[in-house]
C-alpha cells in the first residue's frame, strides 16, 4: 500500500529516523512471526542506537537474536532462514563492519534466486547505519552503497526522512528479494518528520521530487539531501531556482524522475557523501550522458567526498571530508550560472 | 587414523533390502561418475567431477536422511548423497549437459545439486558459504518447534579452514540447533594435503572447542557411516543439538577433469588406497553375508548401467536453455537497475 | 624502467599471458627474496593454470606457500607480511573467491598506510584470474573490478597483452602500495605476443592507444580489448575509422589519453565484459561528461554485459552474456554513423 | 573458572623492581582511563574507552614482552599493554585529543595504538582483522630465521567468534609460527555475554583442535599472567610454535562512553567483581610482601597522576591536524584516481 493523503492526516506522528526504524520493526514483529531480528547487541542492549530496545522482552530470545561477533554468519544464517521461509532482518552494527559479510551478501544472498533458477529465494533485509558527521573516525563513518550497487540481485535503499524510512523499510521487509537498508546515522536523531499511521509501503526504486525548480537539478540521498534542500531554499532568495531530488533508492534507481528533471532544467549536479571515483554519482551521470546528452547546457557536476580512504577522527579532518549546506550552495550557484 | 578394512558384515539392524539399497546407490554413483568423465573425454561436456571413494560414506549418510522431513545442505562432491535423498540420474544428466530442465536452469556447474521439493538447498561454488545457510535452516526448524526434523550439512576437509565454517558451527552450538556437520575427509583439497590444511589431522577433535559431540568414523564402511550419521541426526531431531562428524574416505580420482593429480601425489598412493575400494569391498561383504548373490550383483550393475544410459540419452535430447533465459529470476518480476 | 625499443629488439620472446605471468613471477622470486607467493594449490600443483609450476621445487615451501582454503587469511596474512617488510604476492584461485577476502582488501590493505598516517605500508600484490568465455559458469566467470575500483588506497590493473602483463606485474610488485592484479583467464592461452627481455615496468595508471582513428573512440580492457581491436580493424574496410584505447589500469585511470582521444573523435564507446550499472564504464562516462561534454557529437555509449548476476554454464547463456567482435562492431558502426 | 583471588605473593622470580613496574603500569592504566572518561564528561573529547579490570593482565603480559625484539598486535582494550611496551602517556593523550602529533595523525579513534618503532602494529576497528596480520608478522620472523623474536597478539573473548580468528590461528599452527594468541576474556562483548558467544565457556580448549598448546590463567594476577605469557613467548621465540592463552578478567566499566552497561547487566554483578579489583589486590600483596610501603604506593599514585596531568596538558596544547592532512598518505606520493 502506498502512502495516501488520508493516511497522512489520520493519525500521523512526529518521529525522528531512529524512532521510525524502531516503530516499523516493532510493527513487523507484531504482525508477522516470520520476522526475526539478528545482530550484535540487538537484545538486552537494544542495539547501540536503542533501535530494538525492549524488543527482546516482548518477542523473546528466539526472535531477537544476540549473535556472536561474526558478520559473515549473521548474514549467512539469515540467508538460510530466508531460504526456508522466514523473513529475517539482519543488522550490521555499523556499515564499516559489513566487509566480512561481503561474500554472503554479494556471492550468496544476491544470487540465491538466480543460481537456483527461482527454486529458492532470499527475502532478507540487511539494515546498517552508515555515514559520517558524528565523529565516527576512520571505521565508524563509511558509506558503503557504491561497494554494492553494481550487484544484480540486490536492492539498496537509503531513505532520508522518517516517513520514507517507514515506507521503505516496510517495502524491504515485504520484498521477496534481498534488500540492503542503509540508515544514515547522523540523521538518526537530527531529522524529524511526520510519519503516517498504519502499514504502508513506498515502492523501492522511486525517487522523490522534494522541491521544484527551473535552473538546475540536484540529485542526492541520505544526509546530504537535507543539506541540498537547505542550500536550494537559501538560493531561492538569490533568485536561483533549484530542483531537488531525493533518490531514496540506489538500486534500482529512478530514471524517469531524473531525466524529466534534467530535461527541464538542462543542468545536473549530483551530491553525495561517499567519495567520487566510481561512486553512485558516476552511474547517474553516465545514464544522463547516454540518454539526455543534448538536453544539457552544462557539464554534469559531481560534488562528492575526496578520494581518500575515510574521514578522520579529528574534527578538522572530518570537517574537510564532509560537505556542508554552504559548499553545496556554492556548487549550485556555480553550475546555475554556468 | 587411516581408513580401516571391514572384514565381516555387521549389519547394525539393517534389512537385506536396506543393504541392497546402499549397494545400489554406490553402484549408481560410480556409474554416473564414469559417465561424466566419459562424456568429457568424448568432448560432449566441458567439465566433470567425480566422487569415487566417497560412495560408501554418501550411501550410508543418505540412508540416515529422512526424505520429506530433513533438509540437506550438500556440496559438489555429494552425488551419492543427493541420489540417495531422491535426485534422479536424469536430473543429474540434465545438469551435466546443462539442459533447460535442470534445476538450476543450466546456470551452475554440474554437481551443484539443488531441489526444493527434496529439501536440497541450493549452494554456490564458494566453499563453506553454504554452511551458514544450513545453520539458518536448522534455526527455522527449531524456531517452528518441528521435532523430528534436522539438517544434514556436508563439506570437504579443506573447507573447514574457511572462517564461515567456524562461525556457523559456533552459532549452531550456542543455539543447540538440529544440524549435523558431516565432513567428508578425503585427505586432499585439490592438491593440498590435510597436513597443509591443519596442524593436527583429526577434524572431529574441533568439536570439543565448540561444546558439541564429535566423532570420526570409517567412511569406507556404509553401515558404520549410516549408524554414526543416524545417531547424530536422531540426536538433532530430538532436541539434542548439533554434532560434528568426520567420515574418513579418499578421493580416488583427480579433483575434476581440469586437474591432474599426478602432479602432486603418486600413483602408488592411489593404488594403495584403491585396495580398499569401498564398492568392491561392500559387494564382497554382501555376497559373503548372503545378502545377495554374485548374479544379483551383476544384475544390479546392468540395471544401473541401463538407468545411466537412459538418463544420458533422455537428457542429451533435451534443448539448451534459451538465450532469453539469461534474464529470468534475477528478482521476482522484471526489474532493471534503472527503473 | 619503462619499455624501450632496444629492450624490445634485444631478445624479446613470444609468450602467451600465462607464460608472461609465470616468467615475471619467476624473475621476481629470483631477484628479491622478500618476494613470496601464497595461495591455494600454488605449490606442487603449480596453480590451477600451472602458472607457478615447479616454483616450489626451486624456491621451497617457505616462499611458495600452499595455504589452507581461507581467502580472508590469505590476504590478511599477506598484509601482515607486507607490513613487516616482505613483498607478498597473494593468489586468489578464481576472482569469484575473492569475496571472503573483501574485508582484508578493502578494510585493511587499502587503509594500512592511511590509518597509520604512513607509519605502516602494505606493498602487496593480489593476483587473480577473472572473466568469462571459458564455460566457467556462475561462479568461475565473474568480473570483480567494479567491486573494488571505488576504493581509495587500492590500485587495480587489468592488462590484456603479454608485454603489458609483464610490465604491469613488475610495476605492481615494485609498488609500495596494494595492487589488485586482474588476469583475464580467457586471454591466458589465447593471446600471444612479444615480451621484451629483462626487467622493465609499465607505469600503473597509463592507458595504451592501440589504434588511431578519427571517427570514434573506444575504451576497453581485458579480453574485450582484443575484440574491440578486431572489430575496429574490420571497420577500416568499411571506411569507419575507430580509435582503440586499452585502459590497462583501472585505478588510477588515465584521464589524459581518454580526453585527448574523445576531443579528437568527438564520440565515445566504452566496452566492458562486466555488467553495466555501476561498472567501470560509469566512471569513465561521468569523467568525460564532466570534462569534455561540449566536445561530444553523440551520447556516450556503454556496451556492457546485461545486469544479471552471472553468465550461465550452458553455452547458450554464456553466449548471450558475452559480447563478440561482431556485436562490438555493430555498436561502433551505430555510434560512428550517429 | 571464575577469577580467583590470590592470597599471598608468589613472585615467580621477579625482582622488587619488576614487581613495582607491574604495579606502576597498573596505576598508570587506571589513571589514564579515568582521565579519558573525565575529559569526555567535560565535553572535551567525544569518546573514551577504558580497560579497568584488564590492568593486571596487561601489565603482566607487557613484562613478558621484549622491547626492541617482539612485535605486538594489540586491540583497542590494550592501554596497559601498549604503555608497558613503551607508548607514553603523552602519546596516549595525543590520540585521545586527536592532535596532529598522534601516530595515526588523528585519523583513528583513540585506543587504536600503533607505533612502528616500538613494534606495535597498526590495526583498524574491524574486530579480528588484525589477527592475520599478526600471523603474517610471525611468518616474517620465521622466514628470516630470527630466533628470539615472537609476536604477541591479543583480542577480546567475543572476537574469537570471527572467521578470521579461526583462519589465522589455524595457519599459525600449521606453520608453527612464533606467535602467542592472548585472549583477554572479560566475559562480555559490549552487551553480549560469553554464553551467547560460544556454547562452552573455555576458549583455551579450542587450542587442541588446532594442535597447539592452550592454557587459561587468572588475569587478575599480574604475576601469573607474566609467567604464562612468558612461557608461551619463550616457546614461540625458540621455535616451539604458537600458543593459545586465555586470561580471565572482567570489564569493570561500560564498553565505552557510548555504552550504558546497566541495560544488560546488574550493578550487583559489577560490584561483586570489583571486590577482586586487581589493582587494589596487587597493592595489598606488594605491601604485605614487603616489596613496597604504603607510602611508596601513595608516592607512585602521585607520580602517575602528575604524569597524566602533564601528558594531558601537553597534548591538549598541541594543534589539530590540518585540513589538508586529510589528503596525505593515501598512497606513497600523490596519486589521484584520475591521473
Ligand atoms: C571460497 C573458495 N575457495 C576456493 C575454491 C576452489 N576450490 C574448489 S574445490 C577446492 C578443494 C576443496 O577441498 P575439500 O573441501 O577437501 O573438498 P573435496 O574436493 O576434497 O571433496 C577448492 C580449493 C572455491 N570453490 N571456493
Ligand atoms: C567486525 C566488527 N564487528 C563489530 C564491531 C563492534 N564492536 C566493537 S567492540 C565489540 C565487542 C568486542 O568484544 P570482545 O572481543 O570481547 O572485546 P572487549 O571489548 O570485551 O575487550 C563490538 C561488537 C567491530 N568493531 N568490528
Ligand atoms: Mg577433501
Ligand atoms: Mg570481552
Report on this structure.
The complex is a heterotetramer, with two copies of chain A (338 residues) and two copies of chain B (339 residues). The model of chain A is unreliable at 1-8 (pLDDT under 50). Chain A folds into two domains: 13-195, Rossmann fold, CATH 3.40.50.970; 208-336, Rossmann fold (3-Layer(aba) Sandwich). Chain A has helices at 5-11, 17-31, 55-59, 71-83, 102-108, 112-115, 145-148, 162-174, 187-190, 223-237, 255-265, 280-291, 315-321, 325-336, and strands spanning 13-16, 35-39, 64-66, 87-91, 125-130, 155-157, 179-184, 192-195, 208-211, 216-220, 242-246, 249-251, 268-275, 301-305. In chain A, helix 4 (71-83) packs parallel to helix 5 (102-108) and helix 10 crosses helix 14. Chain A has 14 helices and 14 strands. By secondary structure, chain B is of the alpha/beta class. Chain B has one domain (17-313): Thiamin diphosphate (ThDP)-binding fold, Pyr/PP domains (Rossmann fold, 3-Layer(aba) Sandwich), CATH 3.40.50. Helices cover 41% and strands 9% of the residues of chain B. In chain B, strands 1-2-3-7-6 form a five-stranded parallel β-sheet, with helices on both faces. In chain B, helix 8 (222-237) links the parallel strand 6 and strand 7. The radius of gyration of chain B is 20 Å and the shape is globular. Bound molecules: thiamine diphosphate (2 copies) and magnesium ion (2 copies). One magnesium ion is lined by residues 156-158, 186, 188-189 of chain D.
Amino acid at each position: 500500500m502506498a502512502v495516501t493523503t488520508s493516511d497522512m492526516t489520520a493519525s500521523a506522528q512526529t518521529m525522528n529516523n531512529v524512532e521510525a526504524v524502531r516503530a516499523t520493526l516493532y510493527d513487523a514483529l507484531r504482525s508477522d512471526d516470520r520476522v526475526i531480528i539478528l545482530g550484535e547487541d540487538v537484545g538486552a542492549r537494544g542495539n547501540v542506537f536503542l533501535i530494538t530496545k525492549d524488543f527482546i522482552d516482548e518477542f523473546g530470545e528466539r526472535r531477537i537474536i544476540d549473535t556472536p561477533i561474526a558478520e559473515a554468519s549473521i548474514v549467512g544464517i539469515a540467508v538460510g532462514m530466508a531460504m526456508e521461509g522466514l523473513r529475517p532482518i539482519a543488522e550490521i552494527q555499523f556499515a564499516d563492519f559489513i566487509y566480512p559479510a561481503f561474500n554472503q551478501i554479494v556471492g550468496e544472498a544476491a544470487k540465491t534466486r538466480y543460481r537456483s533458477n527461482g527454486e529458492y529465494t532470499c527475502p532478507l533485509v540487511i539494515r546498517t547505519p552508515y555515514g559520517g558527521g558524528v565523529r565516527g573516525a576512520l571505521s565508524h563513518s563509511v558509506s558503503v552503497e557504491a561497494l554494492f550497487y553494481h550487484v544484480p540481485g540486490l536492492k539498496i535503499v537509503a531513505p532520508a526522512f522518517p516517513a520514507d524510512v517507514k515506507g521503505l523499510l516496510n517495502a524491504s521487509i515485504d520484498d521477496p528479494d534481498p534488500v540492503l537498508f542503509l540508515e544514515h546515522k547522523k540523521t538518526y536523531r537530527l531529522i524529524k518528520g511526520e510519519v503516517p499511521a498504519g502499514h504502508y509501503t513506498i515502492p523501492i526504486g522511486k525517487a522523490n521530487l522534494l522541491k521544484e525548480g527551473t535552473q538546475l537539478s540536484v540529485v542526492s540521498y541520505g544526509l546530504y539531501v537535507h543539506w541540498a534542500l537547505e542550500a536550494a531554499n537559501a538560493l531561492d532568495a538569490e533568485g536561483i531556482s533549484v530542483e531537488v531530488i531525493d533518490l531514496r533508492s540506489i538500486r534500482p534507481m529512478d530514471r524517469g524522475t531524473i531525466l524529466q528533471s534534467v530535461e527541464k532544467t538542462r543542468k545536473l549536479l549530483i551530491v553525495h557523501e561517499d567519495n567520487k571515483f566510481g561512486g553512485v554519482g558516476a552511474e547517474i551521470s553516465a545514464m544522463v550522458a547516454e540518454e539526455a546528452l543534448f538536453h544539457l547546457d552544462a557539464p554534469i557536476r559531481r560534488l562528492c567526498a575526496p578520494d581518500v580512504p575515510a574521514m578522520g577522527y579529528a574534527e578538522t579532518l572530518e570537517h574537510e571530508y564532509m560537505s556542508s549546506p554552504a559548499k553545496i550552495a556554492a556548487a549550485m550557484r556555480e553550475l546555475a550560472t554556468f | 587414523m587411516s581408513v580401516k578394512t571391514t572384514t565381516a558384515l555387521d549389519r547394525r539392524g539393517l534389512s537385506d533390502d536396506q543393504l541392497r539399497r546402499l549397494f545400489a546407490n554406490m553402484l549408481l554413483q560410480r556409474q554416473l561418475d564414469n559417465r561424466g568423465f566419459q562424456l568429457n573425454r568424448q568432448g560432449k561436456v566441458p567439465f566433470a567431477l567425480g566422487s569415487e571413494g566417497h560412495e560408501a560414506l554418501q550411501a550410508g549418510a543418505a540412508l540416515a536422511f529422512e526424505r520429506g522431513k530433513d533438509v540437506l545442505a550438500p556440496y559438489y562432491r555429494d552425488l551419492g548423497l543427493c541420489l540417495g535423498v531422491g535426485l534422479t540420474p536424469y536430473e543429474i544428466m540434465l545438469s551435466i549437459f546443462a539442459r533447460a530442465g535442470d534445476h538450476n536452469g543450466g546456470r551452475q556447474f554440474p554437481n551443484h545439486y539443488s531441489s526444493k521439493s527434496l529439501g536440497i538447498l541450493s549452494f554456490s561454488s564458494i566453499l563453506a558459504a553454504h554452511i551458514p545457510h544450513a545453520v539458518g535452516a536448522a534455526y527455522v526448524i527449531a524456531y517452528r518447534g518441528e521435532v523430528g526434523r534436522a539438517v544434514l550439512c556436508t563439506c570437504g576437509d579443506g573447507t573447514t579452514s574457511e572462517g564461515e565454517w567456524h562461525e556457523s558451527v559456533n552459532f549452531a552450538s550456542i543455539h543447540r540447533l538440529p544440524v549435523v556437520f558431516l565432513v567428508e575427509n578425503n585427505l586432499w583439497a585439490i592438491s593440498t594435503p590435510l597436513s597443509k590444511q591443519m596442524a593436527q589431522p583429526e577434524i572431529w577433535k574441533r568439536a570439543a572447542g565448540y561444546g558439541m559431540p564429535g566423532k570420526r568414523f570409517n567412511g569406507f564402511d556404509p553401515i558404520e557411516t549410516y549408524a554414526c550419521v543416524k545417531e547424530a541426526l536422531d540426536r538433532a531431531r530430538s532436541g539434542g543439538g548439533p554434532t560434528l562428524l568426520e567420515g574418513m574416505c579418499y578421493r580416488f580420482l583427480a579433483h575434476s577433469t581440469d586437474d591432474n593429480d599426478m602432479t602432486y601425489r603418486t600413483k602408488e598412493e592411489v593404488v594403495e588406497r584403491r585396495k580398499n575400494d569401498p564398492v568392491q569391498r561392500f559387494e564382497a561383504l554382501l555376497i559373503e553375508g548372503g545378502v545377495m548373490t554374485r548374479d544379483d550383483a551383476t544384475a544390479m550393475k546392468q540395471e544401473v548401467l541401463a538407468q545411466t544410459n537412459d538418463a544420458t540419452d533422455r537428457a542429451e535430447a533435451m534443448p539448451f536453455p534459451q538465450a532469453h533465459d539469461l534474464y529470468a529470476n534475477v528478482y521476482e518480476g522484471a526489474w532493471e537497475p534503472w527503473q
